[in-house]
What we know:
- With 350 residues, the chain is α/β, with parallel strands linked by helices.
- It has 2 domains: 36-115 and 292-346, Periplasmic binding protein-like II (D-Maltodextrin-Binding Protein, domain 2); 116-266, Periplasmic binding protein-like II (D-Maltodextrin-Binding Protein, domain 2, 3-Layer(aba) Sandwich).
- The protein is built from 13 helices and 11 strands.
- The protein has helices at residues 2-23, 46-59, 72-81, 95-100, 134-141, 151-154, 177-188, 194-197, 214-223, 234-239, 259-266, 305-318, 336-346; strands at residues 35-41, 63-69, 86-89, 107-121, 131-132, 168-172, 210-212, 228-233, 246-248, 254-255, 291-299.
- It has an 8-stranded mixed beta sheet with strand order 2-1-3-11-4-8-6-7. It has a 3-stranded mixed beta sheet with strand order 5-9-10.
- A hairpin with a 5-residue loop joins strand 9 (246-248) and strand 10.
Amino acid sequence: MQTKNWTRRAFGTFAVLxxxxxxxxxxxxxTVQALTLSGAGATFPQPLYEKWFYEYxxxxxxxxINYQGxxxxxxxxxxxxxxxxxxxxxxxxxxxxxxAVGGTSKILMLPMTAGAVAITYNIPGVKSGVKIxxxxxxxxxxxxxxxxxxxxxxxxxxxxxxxxLAIAVVRRSDSSGTSFIFTNHLAAxxxxxxxxxxxxxxxxxxxxxxxxxGNQGVSAQVQQTPGAIGYVEYAYAAENNLPVAAIxxxxxxxxxxSVASVVAALDGTKYPDNFRVFIEDPDGKESYPIIGLTWLLxxxxxxxxxxxxxxxxxxxxxxxxxxxxxxPLKYTxxxxxxxxxxxxxxxxxx
Length: 350
């Protein structure tokens, strides 16, 4: 009997405890709602931007930044339509584009890094060592030089066996800041008539060539086409081990793209208050000739206060702590005086 009574008492105790537990309120769990920023634009800086956004999210898990590489023209278009929180372009907005968004009182163009446009090729049996003069490069893209064994190419490539093979020109089909940097340089080569025949821009009427979308598209087209030549962002070429040509600079020296040769090209560049500057054909024996800055396009006044504050915070992080990721990805850090000016300008983001 005692055992049965003890069992009943124990069972009753457990039942009471269970009832109390069932009635108890669950502990309060606080959840942090992640803030998502969306951006779109240039493919030129995309590897660096994606690295920055990834590292920034690791440091600040409640902030997520989504980025679509749709080309500089797309980035300008999206920021104008206000369908993104920020845009990105390798071609600074022109007067017409700025007017469409209300001018510099409404939008900031913040340079974030610099880089080179590399010339890649697919010549069977030739993996490296190709040199191309500035004039020859323009004539290839004008369709005036059509064979790899043309004297204009072989004369500066002694010791390199270049085949009697047609040159297949590959260029961007989308509106591209990489194209802007490339054509801006070609337009500076006066003896080629490129400026008069084609001009410079993110999208031009190409005289010849096969169109491909993005760095990836151009690279794929070059790799699968014997005799092809194309232009891609240097960091992309380095990451994918693409052969690149040494290009003649205005001093007559053949220079390969590199972080150091972009630093040399940036030396002495003067930047206006709105940071809109184009480096067409830089001075200096060590300068790689086809380079450009790339800009973030941000609203001065943001409809969402939190997003505006976070964009300003990200710019500060990218140009300070985030600089450790720039050179390893084959991009060029901004010169210190310019970086300080950009940081000061970013304080205007509201």
